[in-house]
Amino acid sequence: MADSRVSVAPQARRGEPFEVRISIRHPMETGYRTNESGEHVPRNVIRRFSCRYNGTPVFAVRVTSGIAANPYFRFFVTARESGPLEFEWIDDAGVRGEARAEVKVT
Amino acid sequence: MLRRRAALAVAALIPFLAGAQERVVPIDKLRSGVEFAGADVRAMQADDFANPGFLWVERGEALWREAVAGKSCASCHGDAAMSVRGVAARHPAFDRASGTVVDLEGRINACRVRNQGAQPFERESEELLALTAYVATQSRGMPMAVSIDGPARASFERGRALYTARHGQMNLACTQCHEQSSGKRLYAETLSQGHGTAFPAYRLEWQGVGSLQRRIRACFYGIRAEMPRPGAPELTDLELYLAWRAQGLPIEAPGVRR
């Protein structure tokens, strides 16, 4: 199941920032809604999202219920060495997600 | 250059003029729903990465290759970019085997039942939306061109009657908003011409992808009329009428709407 999409420029120049984009499929249930039978729908949002570049944390967000469903993050990272970008997130239900992209530094 | 472009535009119109059918909205006045949307929604649709509908399209692509009882969509249809390009522009269409008009969702379900021997997907299920979005995306940019002749005619006429009749406690017909008042404001919304060429679409209000039937049902709700159940033949009739009314407009699926 496609639960995320990642977009990173295939090549980046050393010392320069490159753009990273990721969108994650998630309901981001606020906890303020009721279902059709009037029962409370428990809150389930992505709690934390983080990104590591060559093993080093470069970006992290504490996400709250104010963010819409299927969140989309866009940020910049400074190119150092070729290597992986590893994304990780966890929601209120304890479900973890992950994604990966390779960056080639020239 | 300008003259050449005009000549090309005229050439592109010929297939529609050749049908010589009456049109509700003149072809030069046809405007996609996205043109009535705000700049942020337009930007979201214009960028395939920012468009969350593609999360569904990618899931649909995976489903396309997933075997059910030893057979996937790809086993018969191969590369969707070749085999189903244009299919969304021709639907709803008459299905000989069932003797009824089916929309794209109905066509996919019929194929699934007949050729994979599987249970049909439920209407508005994530799987059916994903697969429909994937198939519809293959026709992006192609002009809507459905057939309303022969066996599809009766369904078309029922659709037209539903579109023009008043419904519900508000006693409103589709035409009153989408023909007489398109471009005007209804509270914070701008009334569109009511074309379904972006569907299945990501609607911000839904926080997800939904079908054209779901969108039409939302209109019934808005005018406080009884909503036809998902998959009801009245909805397919309306979808066919809408597709005919929009013919010439390019398919945008998965569109983004407010």
Description of the molecule:
The complex is a heterodimer of chains A (106) and B (258). Chain A has strands spanning 4-8, 11-12, 17-24, 46-53, 56-62, 72-78, 83-91, 96-105. Chain A has no helices and 8 strands. Chain A has a single domain, classed as Immunoglobulin-like, CATH 2.60.40.10. Chain A is mainly beta and 106 residues long. In chain A, 0% of the residues lie in helices and 53% in strands. A 5-stranded mixed sheet of chain A has the order 2-8-7-4-5, with no helix packed on it. The relative contact order of chain A is 0.31. The model of chain B has no long low-confidence stretch (mean pLDDT 92). Helix content of chain B is 46%, strand content 7%. By secondary structure, chain B is mostly helical. Chain B folds into 2 domains: 23-50 and 152-257, Cytochrome c-like domain (Cytochrome Bc1 Complex, Chain D, domain 2), CATH 1.10.760.10; 53-137, Cytochrome Bc1 Complex, Chain D, domain 2, CATH 1.10.760.10. In chain B, helix 3 packs across helix 8 (126-137). Chain B has helices at residues 2-19, 39-46, 53-65, 73-77, 80-83, 87-90, 104-116, 126-137, 153-164, 174-178, 212-222, 233-245, and strands at 93-95, 100-102, 185-186, 189-190, 201-203, 208-210, 256-257. The A-B interface holds A 1-5, 7, 21, 23, 25, 27-28, 68-70, 72 and B 49-50, 52, 54-55, 58-59, 61-62, 204, 207-208.
> What integer is the average pLDDT of chain B?
92
Number of helices of chain A: 0
Order of strands side by side in the largest beta sheet of chain A? 2-8-7-4-5
Which residues of chain A form runs of ≥5 with pLDDT under 50?
none
Strand content of chain B: 5-15%
**Overall outline of chain A:** elongated
User: What's the total helix number of chain B?
Assistant: 12
- Structural class of chain A comes to mainly beta
CATH topology of the largest domain in chain B: Cytochrome Bc1 Complex, Chain D, domain 2
Residue share in helices of chain A?
A: under 10%
Element-level helix/strand string of chain B: HHHHHHEEHHHHEEEEHHE
- What is the radius of gyration of chain B? 18 Å
